[in-house]
Amino acid sequence: MNERIVLLGTKGGPAIRPGGPSPTSSLIETGGRVIAVDCALGVSRGIVNAGVSLKGLSHVLVTHLHSDHVLELGGLIHTAWTSGLATPVKVYGPKGVVALWQAFLASLVVDISTRIVDEGRPVLADLVTVAEIDAGVVLEEPGLRVTALRVPHPPLADCFAFRVEMTSGVVVFSGDTAFHPPLADFAKGADLLIHEAMLPEGLESIIRRTGNGTRLREHLVASHTFAADVGRIATMAGVKRLALNHMIPADDPDFTEAHWHAAVSETYSGDLIVGRDGLEIRL
After folding, report:
1. Which end of the chain has less neighbouring CB within 10 Å, N or C?
2. Domain locations along the chain
3. Which CATH class is domain 4-281?
4. Which residues on adjacent β-strands are paired with residue 248?
């Protein structure tokens, strides 16, 4: 059975730099489904580069509404539609995702209405169902069950981790979150935990390049998880493998895989995958 996860973008934050990684998005292929987890800038190209046809897009899971997770939500679905999508797409995300989708449709009303008439395409709005979620079971279909856990990512109140149960195993996506011990129970026994991670020594690198030092530092420390704490979650959960994603920093050559391994190994002795764009993981 062709089931896999592909890390399409592994960088924390919305900025992109020459030759660097893309912001955070992932792909799940399972049971004939094509599932995007978050839709950062570059998600459409990432899916295509992974060898997957966009017209097969079936589900989208959105962890929260920061731009580095939803900037290309509308663009992904629209590009899939112009690539031949003619089957339903189900979108699940926090409060506000319905308004985001409707605003996208309004912003491209000229293009969309023209293509429906001029090119004979199906009505895009009729293909897409958008559901606003809370903690608990998000969707359940044969061979697929997705559960959400609310995680702390101030100042946003609606941020979610996802536990995805498939035929081949269980993968948990932390979403953006501060250190949150209940996530260990949520991820208990998972085959793979994909968790955001931040290097303490990398903070000044991000601040120096981005600016707005004091406020940005406060946000990063309050809203994200240091690598050693990621290891703690993975150890408490007893996961089979841990993959780092949404890495801060992810595009500074002064910080290599060795830095990530050193930080996580303080608290986790299991199989560690340091994420990179395009990395394929099979359960």
Report:
1. N
2. 4-281
3. alpha beta
4. 198
- Tokens 């912001």 locate to 23
Q: What is the total residue count of the chain?
A: 283
User: C-alpha angle with apex 67: 64 to 70, nearest 5 degrees?
Assistant: 60
Q: Backbone dihedral region of 136: left (phi > 0), alpha (psi from -120 to 50 degrees) or beta?
A: left
**What's the distance, CA 246 to chain centroid?**
8
**15 φ, ψ (degrees, to nearest 5):** -70, 145
Go through 7-22 and write b for each residue having 16 or more CB atoms within 10 A of its CB, e for each that does not: bbbbbbbeebeeeebb
**pTM exceeds 0.90, yes or no:** yes
Query: pLDDT digits over 41-89, tens only?
Result: 999 999 999 999 999 999 999 999 999 999 999 999 999 999 999 999 9
| Residue 211, pLDDT score | 67
Query: What whole-number distance in Å separates Cα of residue 61 and Cα of residue 79?
Result: 17
Alpha-carbon distance values, 209 to 202, 247, 249 (Å): 11, 15, 11
* Residues 193/211, Cβ–Cβ less than 8 Å: no
